[in-house]
Amino acid sequence: METVFQNDFCTVVVYPEKKIVHHTIHKFIFGENFRNMMTKAADAYEKYDCRKWLSDDRENMALAEEDIKWGQENWENRILKTGWDYWALVMPKKALGQLNMKPIRDRYKGMGVTVETFSDADEAMKWLESQD
């Protein structure tokens, strides 16, 4: 495991041998902090030829519309082009955050990413590790 990026808002690690990028949100993240996290994670995803992403979003709230739009315009194509096969999504604890993530989850399912949602990061990792 290699830590790629860390601050008060989040931690991003990569498991090169497992081809997994894993971000953990520590508190509500938006704007520049969100974009930095996603960019650093995408850099590692490409560098290590990853195919799996674990998003631990338990401590996040609803994503801002500007951040969703930024992700679709700047992050999404990078990851899909690299080869995004599996996404383990640990849903936010708050109902508003969960509602916000459902259309995002469905968007990537519609693009061919195998997505599973979880309430526990360890279970999410076990599932990712079991995927070929």
Uncertain runs:
none
* Overall mean pLDDT: 97
Strand order of the largest sheet: 1-2-3-4-5-6
- Helical segment tally? 4
Q: CATH topology, anyone?
A: Transcription Regulator spoIIAA
Largest sheet: 6 strands, mixed
Per CATH, the class reads: Alpha Beta
- Please state the structural category: alpha/beta
So what's the overall shape? globular
Distance, first to last CA: 19 Å
CATH architecture annotation name: 2-Layer Sandwich
* Number of DSSP-assigned strands: 6
**Helix proportion range:** 40-55%
Written description of the protein model:
The protein has one domain (2-129): STAS domain (Transcription Regulator spoIIAA, 2-Layer Sandwich). The protein is 45% helix and 24% strand. The protein has 4 helices and 6 strands. The protein has helices spanning 31-47, 65-82, 95-110, 121-129; strands spanning 2-6, 10-15, 20-25, 52-56, 86-90, 114-118. A 6-stranded mixed sheet has the order 1-2-3-4-5-6, sandwiched between helices.
Strand-helix topology:
Layout: E1 2-6, E2 10-15, E3 20-25, H1 31-47, E4 52-56, H2 65-82, E5 86-90, H3 95-110, E6 114-118, H4 121-129
Parallel strand pairs: 3-4, 4-5, 5-6
Antiparallel strand pairs: 1-2, 2-3
Brief account:
The protein is of the alpha/beta class and 132 residues long. It has helices at residues 31-47, 65-82, 95-110, 121-129; strands spanning 2-6, 10-15, 20-25, 52-56, 86-90, 114-118.
